[in-house]
Each structure stands twice: as C-alpha cells, then as structure tokens.
Design brief:
Length: 143
C-alpha cells in the first residue's frame, strides 16, 4: 500500500522581496509564511524549506530508529531527535546534522550508536536526500 501526502506553496514577488506561504494539505494542520530573509537571516516568525525539511527528517528518522531498535529486541521508551539543516545561498543545502537522545532499556552505548547509524542510512527521508554532501548523526542515550 502506498500513501501520497501533499503540501502546496504560493509565492508573490521576486526572490529577495517577495514572500509566500506553504500549506500542509494532507493533514490540514496549517499554513505557514515563508520568505527569503526567513531562509537566510533570522526567521522572524516565518518558516523555510530547510525548517520544513528538518521537521520531516527528524520525524522520519525517529520512526526508522524506533523500528530498528524494536527489531533488535530493545524497543525505545523515548527518542528525541533534532535535525539541523544548513543552507548556503548560492550553494544550497550543505549539511544535515541529526542529533538524537534516547531512553532505551537494555542497550549499550555502542549498540545504540550502531543502530543510530543504521537508522540514518535507512530512513526514507535520508534516502531521498543522498545528494546532500553531508548528513551526520550524533546519538546519545538519555541520562
């Protein structure tokens, strides 16, 4: 079974002085303002393609990691992941850094790190982003 999700974007004006909105159509969860300054300077209450990509990547990663841990016999209690997407004007997305903290009973730090790497490589969003020069993962167990 496949699933298709949609979002739409509307833009008015040129790149530097224009602005737009992105709408999460499938879920109906909202419409968010976007602009070039929000992408390259301070957000100012607006989002950017990179922030939306970070949200998608961190959510997908947690799902993949949870599944890998469960299949290994060490299901997580919690996983908290941040995705930091770096955008360089004129170059594009140059790095995605995933940082995850997990509460996983019965797992060693070494096994946690190995499963974290496996999830990074197997996550469908990671797969879709293979052209990004650097996708890294920082993983640690919660105290």
């Amino acid at each position: 079974m496949s699933a298709t999700r949609t979002a739409t974007a509307h833009w008015e004006g040129d790149l530097f002085t224009g602005s737009g909105q992105v709408t999460l159509e499938s879920s109906g969860k909202g419409t968010f303002d976007v602009s070039w300054p929000a992408r390259t300077e301070e957000p100012g209450g607006k989002t950017s393609p990179e922030e939306l990509l970070a949200a998608a990547h961190s959510a997908c990663y947690n799902m993949a990691f949870s599944n890998i841990l469960n299949k290994a016999g060490t299901p997580p209690t919690t996983l908290d992941t941040t995705a930091a997407v770096t955008f360089v004007p004129g170059t594009g997305i140059t790095e995605i850094k995933l940082s995850t903290v997990g509460s996983v009973p019965g797992i060693s730090a070494e096994d946690f790190q190995a499963r974290a790497e496996e999830a990074k490589d197997g996550c469908p969003v990671s797969q879709a982003l293979k052209s990004v020069p650097s996708i890294t993962i920082e993983a640690r167990l919660a105290d």
